[in-house]
Amino acid sequence: MVNAKDYEFKISAAGRVNIIGEHIDYCGGKVMPAALSVRNTVYVRRNDSDVIDLSWTTLPDKVSLRLDALESYRNIKYGNYQAGCALLWQHAGHKLAGCDMVQECTVPFGSGLSSSAAIEVSTIAALSTIAGEKFDPKEVALTAQRAEREFVGVNCGIMDQYASACGKRGHAMLLDCKTLDCEYVPVRLDGCSLIIANCNKPHNLVESRYNERRAETDAALDILSKKANISCLADLTPEMFSRYGKLLDGKLYDRVKHVVEEVARVDAAAKAMKRGDCAALGSILNASHASLKDLYEVTGRELDTLAAAAQSHPGCLGSRMTGGGFGGCTISIVQKDAVSDFKKRTGKLYADAIGYGASFYDAEISDGIVVEEL
Ligand code: GLA
């Protein structure tokens, strides 16, 4: 337990769920995530030294990061995210101050709900605040993304960090990943709830081909931009795709088909959400899952089984994997009065097929960064 009154600030950032728009943020598409009430919280106080002393509520480890040697912590087991964030915030021209930080994470690790973004974003917001600077949440998100790419080595898009920093309670974010324009759309699901379920695939078995997918889309963009006037794959219209798609070999063709169709699904889903049309939204979620399974190939047996079990429930209007994939969570739209039976039956179908259970979360849609002075 943290004794909050020993610290100066309590600063948290959100985990996120992505409602629709999967694997298109790094193609310049629009995505529709929402920030969650599961979060990473940082308790921080100045310590008038030139180190960041890090500890966790859930780990016995303690790590000291010297402010003049941040680069050297790239491969440490715990604390590398915080070191990377501090280093890139420093590189962006901000001052750092020695401090004690206790980290407490309620975003389940490896769940696809962006525990890493929540850690990165809350750490940078804490570093900035304790150094006496006001921060711009967008800049925090962009720096956190750079830390993930340049320090941790995952070539991610901007969706997770942006949602973690800039989320708004009760709202989904229609985020244009090319321009970073963000429209907040109230989550209106008359009579329905969003249910998040974790397939609990052991993390050491998650074979992440994330960087490989990115490389494939980059290669496709290289080929297509010689013919079509596009600066990112999300610019490719269905007409352009039907004209130039034949330039791509089998796998690349499938990947780009997913991108083109997912871009259209986000648009349709945003309209359905604004009308409060859960049935339409649900079938868009189902179509997205099928595409991530067959064209983009980022699901796997566990997520496919969980989504299919959910989709087969009479009270479920749609279900799909959410986040990077390969393991992690699904998101389902379920009629409110069917939620408890949905969890029971979906959970049983899944456990019977896979041999271990799924977990269901009742996370709420929440704000991004929250700063509290203690
Ligand atoms: C991960 C990445 C995001 C995004 C999703 C897939 O969560 O961090 O940038 O690409 O996968 O939509």
Task: Describe it.
The protein has a domain at 4-184 and 366-373: 2-Layer Sandwich (Ribosomal Protein S5, domain 2), CATH 3.30.230. It is globular and about 60 Å long. Helix 9 (301-311) runs antiparallel to helix 10. The strands form two sheets. Strands 1, 2, 3, 4, 5, 6, 7 and 12 form an eight-stranded mixed beta sheet that branches. Strands 9-10-8-11 form a four-stranded antiparallel beta sheet. The chain has helices at 80-91, 115-130, 137-152, 159-166, 210-224, 238-244, 250-275, 278-294, 301-311, 339-354, and strands spanning 9-20, 30-46, 51-56, 62-66, 99-105, 171-176, 182-186, 192-198, 316-322, 329-335, 359-361, 370-373. It is an alpha+beta fold and 374 residues long. The site of alpha-D-galactopyranose (GLA) has 11 residues, from helix 4.
